[in-house]
Amino acid sequence: MRKVKSLGLRNRLQQLKDRYDLSALDLEVLRKVQKYQIKSICCTTDGGFDKETGEFYTEERTLNYKVKIVYQKEPNSKLDIVLLKAEEAEHEDFFKFPKKTVKLNKAV
Fold first, then answer.
1. CA distance 25 to 89
2. pLDDT tens for residues 61-83?
3. Is 41 helix (H, G, I), strand (E, B) or coil?
4. Which pTM does this prediction carry?
5. 62 CB contacts (<8 Å, ≥6 apart)?
6. Is residue 69 classed exposed, middle or buried when 0-12, 13-18 and 19+ CB atoms within 10 A define those classes?
């Protein structure tokens, strides 16, 4: 297994620990994924990453993952993803009603 080779990626992993309030589970996952070759690290403040596909979406959902790490366990193996920093969306994000009031005309 390859350790993270790039100094930039090592620094980025440390920045994740410093910047985000990660759960104990997130920190454990982060510690384990460092054993492999990390291909990319993506972070967001708005929207999130899909749990199934890892795709980014701009709209808030019920559960938003804010950090995505793409890694490879062995050379020439498929790329895997891990998602960290799960946040539940606020209820008011989902129930936005129009601000305009509707007036009905009275039938004569």
1. 20
2. 888 899 999 999 998 899 999 99
3. strand
4. 0.72
5. 88, 89, 94
6. buried
